[in-house]
Design brief:
CATH topology: Alkaline Phosphatase, subunit A
Strand order of the largest sheet: 4-3-5-1-6-7-2-8
Distance between the termini: 65 Å
Low-confidence stretches: 1-34
Radius of gyration: 20 Å
Order of helices and strands: HHEHHEHHHEEHEHHEHEEH
Number of strands: 8
CATH superfamily: Alkaline Phosphatase, subunit A
Oligomer: single chain
CATH architecture: 3-Layer(aba) Sandwich
Mean pLDDT: 90
Strand content: 5-15%
Number of domains: 1
Shape: globular
């Protein structure tokens, strides 16, 4: 009887779709990729730091209260959406990753970053990966075989959050990137710092809350490093190269072992750059990266080890 049961189990295993097993199984993870470590990166497109302070953003403030943060993080010198986000998710400056345009380019063949993305590195390490982005041009980051679940369409913050929440409930991706486009759209339409943009920032905060609530409902929050940041700021109706109002962004980290209510500018020699987001995510997950990254892990977010007793 046992032999018959064993044969039946083997036949069932052979009949399973190979692709599904490869993308959803946790047994393929190497020992160096613990199942209890996750990363969620949320980028609020165009969120100039002072907007986050002026707007009613209780979720962002709660992350600050329970995390480490700076409102003086620096984006790429070009300070535009696609090159900056690719730097955020590859750890290198635009001249190295090769994505210099900022639109949906009509190439005959898709063009992807020349440097490995966070999704690519995470997949190699055995993690599951997902992206929900509200601009179609983010398909540039969707290299084949690097994302288990992906949404890249022109969409509102609420629709993007809907997709991210659905991914969390259905799939529980271990590495998730969420891009909210509404603040940038309001800036271009009504101006940076306008009442309309403040309202868009408050809506973005509500959508961040929904995504974090989904993590809570799936009992994943305590294992997740959450980074909330932006790709650029702006002034007037646009944003541009080396304008200080475009160049600076908020950068907030919260999660297991992260210092609480800690302003990273207390460390005067520390400057957080957009490329550091990639490096920090890989460092936290234990993913090996190239030695010549432009970004570095912001290890200062963690509680310092207690001093040895004398």
């Amino acid at each position: 009887m046992r032999r018959i049961a064993s044969l039946f189990i083997a036949l069932v295993a052979l009949s399973l779709p190979v692709g599904v097993a490869q993308t959803t199984s946790t047994s393929s993870r190497p020992a160096s990729s613990p199942a209890d470590k996750r990363v969620l990166i949320i980028s609020v497109d165009g969120l100039r730091p002072d907007l986050a302070l002026r707007a009613d953003m209780p979720t962002v403030r709660d992350l600050m209260k329970h995390g480490a943060f700076t409102f003086w993080a620096r984006t790429t010198a070009v300070s535009i959406t696609l090159p900056s986000h690719v730097s955020m998710l590859t750890g290198v400056v635009p001249v190295r990753h090769g994505i210099s345009w900022n639109g949906e380019m009509p190439f005959k063949e898709p063009v992807y970053p020349a440097s490995p993305t966070l999704f690519e590195q995470a997949k190699k390490a055995g993690f599951t990966t997902a992206m929900a982005a509200g601009k179609a041009k983010f398909s540039t980051l969707a290299k084949p075989n690097t994302l288990d679940w992906c949404f890249t369409e022109s969409a509102s913050d609420q629709v993007v959050a809907d997709k991210a929440v659905a991914m969390i409930h259905a799939n529980k991706p271990q590495v998730l990137f969420v891009h909210l486009p509404g603040v940038d759209g309001a800036g271009h339409g009504s101006g940076w710092g306008s009442p309309q943009q403040i309202k868009a920032a408050e809506n973005a905060d509500a959508q961040i809350h929904r995504v974090l609530e989904a993590l809570d409902q799936e009992h994943l929050r305590d294992a997740t490093l959450v980074i909330v940041t932006a790709d650029h700021g702006g002034a007037g109706y646009t944003h541009g190269a080396d304008d200080v109002r475009s160049r600076h962004t908020p950068w907030i980290a919260s999660g297991p072992g992260v210092r609480e209510n800690f302003d990273l500018t207390l460390l005067p020699k520390l400057t957080v750059n957009i490329e550091d987001t990639f490096a920090t995510a890989c460092w936290y997950l234990g993913i090996p990266v190239a030695d010549d990254l432009d970004g570095r892990p912001v290890s200062e977010i963690l509680q310092p080890a207690p001093a040895a007793a004398k």
